[in-house]
Amino acid sequence: MFSKACEYGIKASTYIALQSLQDKRVSLKEIAEEINSPVAFTAKILHQLAKNDILDSVKGPAGGFQIEKENVEKLKLSHVVFAIDGDSIYSGCGLGLEKCNEQQPCPLHDKFVIIRNELKQMLEETSLLDLTSGLDLGITFLKR
Description:
Pfam families: Rrf2 (PF02082). GO terms for molecular function: DNA-binding transcription factor activity. The protein is built from 7 helices and 2 strands. With 144 residues, it is mainly alpha-helical.
């Protein structure tokens, strides 16, 4: 459903949020290792997230990536998804057809509209803080 870049973006944002809550900045290499992503690909994703004000990038020997603590609760998954994949997830056809709409629906249109609306609601209601809670307790994991 999400692009690979978006999946990595969600994982990276979650990991950075967890570390930021512990007053830690994390390096590109550490993030790439933690989310099992190539370093160069991770760098592009993090640049996109920083450009969209999801996270902060601090240069220098004590630098790295962080998310302001007050933003960990405010930032929703929808912000991360939009920064990486845009809003096409909310408007595309479930079968990838160009002319699918209310007037000319594809065979999955009515069912897919429901799923898409539920997905949008979940992304808009789930904060990075929500995701870090399971990680912090060891209930959920970022690696396979």
